[in-house]
Amino acid sequence: MTLLVHDVTLTYPDGDGRLTALDAVGLEAPAGTLTAVIGPSGSGKSSLLAVAATLVTPDSGRVVVAGVETMGLGAAEKSALRREKIGIVFQQPNLPASLTAAEQVQLMAHLSGRPARAGRRRALELLDAVGLADKAGKRPHQLSGGQRQRINIARALMNDPAVLLVDEPTSALDHERGAAVLDLLVTLTRERSTATVLVTHDHAHRERADSTVTMTDGRLTALGTAPLRTP
Do residues 225 and 62 lie in contact, with contact meaning Cβ atoms separated by under 8 Å? Predict the structure, then answer.
């Protein structure tokens, strides 16, 4: 099991009390599979990704990434784990305007201390993998929304993550470009044996996923089942 979220509860301050964002949530994502998390805005989907990415520490429960228990890790250890084991594809690519497509991807290698030549070679390989080998020298304003999102995905894959966390990657794209991005995620999940968790509000995406769960008011349920609580 590459990603395990076990009995996780997350609350935030809310006036005199606390708001429950995640309520005893459990999720398993095996390597080489895509899990879709579907639910309305405000249901807790983004909170789940933040916890799985070790960006937010829950009140209780366990998060295990590629065999690493994360709850006892310090900030530096979590940062290293994210660099080495977790790829994150945000809803908005947020690509620096001055960097070419290759430089966008190579930036992740630089942050990880990889030699520049090796990082450049790896960046070009990933651009080829996402179908943008001919766009390596283009800057964001010269690319379509779908192409920018593909660069976002390539950037997340730079360090060969065991876990890929994807937040609404098609929300700003039309149907055709969104379908192409989803096809790419499915293909890369299989080829690279990542445990991919896709947060989406689009129920059509569940047809391409290996498993689908629904988030409602901080509770996670499989389709047609009781709330998930990992044993």
Answer: no
CATH architecture, domain 3-93+157-222: 3-Layer(aba) Sandwich (3.40)
Tokens of 18: 């606390």
The domain ranges of the chain are: 3-93+157-222
Task: Please answer whether residues 205 and 198 qualify as being in contact, where contact means their C-beta atoms are separated by less than 8 angstroms.
Answer: yes
Interhelix angle for 145-156 vs 116-129, to 10°? Answer: 130
Cβ pair 96, 105 in contact under 8 A: no
Q: What is the pLDDT of residues 103-153, one digit of tens each?
A: 999 988 777 777 888 888 989 999 998 899 999 999 999 999 889 988 999
Reported as a single tens digit per residue, the pLDDT across 77-117 is 999 999 899 999 988 878 999 999 999 999 887 777 778 88
pTM, 2 dp: 0.87
